[in-house]
Amino acid sequence: MQDPYRVLNVPRQAGQAAIKAAYRELAKRLHPDRNPGDAGAEQRFKQVTQAYELLRDPAKRAQFDRGMIDADGKPQFGFGNFGFGRGAGTRPGAQAGARPGASAGGGDGLFEKIFGGAFGWGGPGGGPSVEELRGAAPDSGRARGVDRRHRVEVDFLLAARGGRQRLALGDRALDIDIPPGTEDGRVLRLKGQGAKGAPGGSPGDALVTIAVRPHRYFSLHGKDVHLELPISLSEAIQGAKVTVPTIDGPVRISVPPGSNSGRSLRLKGRGVAVPGEARGDQYVRLVVMLPEPPDAELAEYLRRWAEKHPYDPRADLEDL
Known about the structure:
By secondary structure, the protein is α+β, with helices and mostly antiparallel strands. Among the domains are: 141-215, Sandwich (HSP40/DNAj peptide-binding domain), CATH 2.60.260.20; 218-319, Urease metallochaperone UreE, N-terminal domain (HSP40/DNAj peptide-binding domain). The chain is 26% helix and 21% strand.
């Protein structure tokens, strides 16, 4: 994959908020639902998502910035010749693509188990985490099973409303509960669903990272749902009753007369419902859309109207 910073078109020093905003904008524009049959857009959408998955994880991002992993999350050096630069080679006899510390026969080496977390392989995307190493330590024959990490993609509406999602756990499947208002990157812990422990030891847990697929129209900010609503020139000038989608289904709202693009309407209680908390709201941002193709009669009318009613909508910008 290309440099993730270039894929998302953000500087290397960009903060998480800027990275997330860039991803949302690109994902919204490139989403397959908006570009049916466009293989190029679909491939670009996958690249954008992969780049965001790397940069939104502080540990992986730090490893990439130091040259320890490449844009695909793969280690860039091996311990066999103590290479510490981007692209350093592996020791003689090691298998191509083997993880650092792995023996030539393919087994995990002790070096990796001890230093994997310290050099960037612990946790998501690589070798044993601190929790896994702790669970694997002998404890009078009652060692706890290691935690297992999984990733599951969920639909935006399921994440917003909450519901059940099937997760494949090796040779079995499990239906898990997705809490309402689940945001991208949230980790759910499933007690006892990890690896089995030693005789007499408890099993580990399953740590499930939730990847929320972007919606074509909705976006989520905390418990509030945001939506851009196109309206016609006539509806903007005269006002109108229009239908608006919400996460619970369509509702009718009133567009006030004289509404400009950018005006936001609040639908109280139409956001995410988290048990025990006040429900969020939905914010509808109006966007005035001119007819396509352009209407000659409308253009002529507005030309005559403008001659008699001159005004400057950018007057406030003159002081900048």
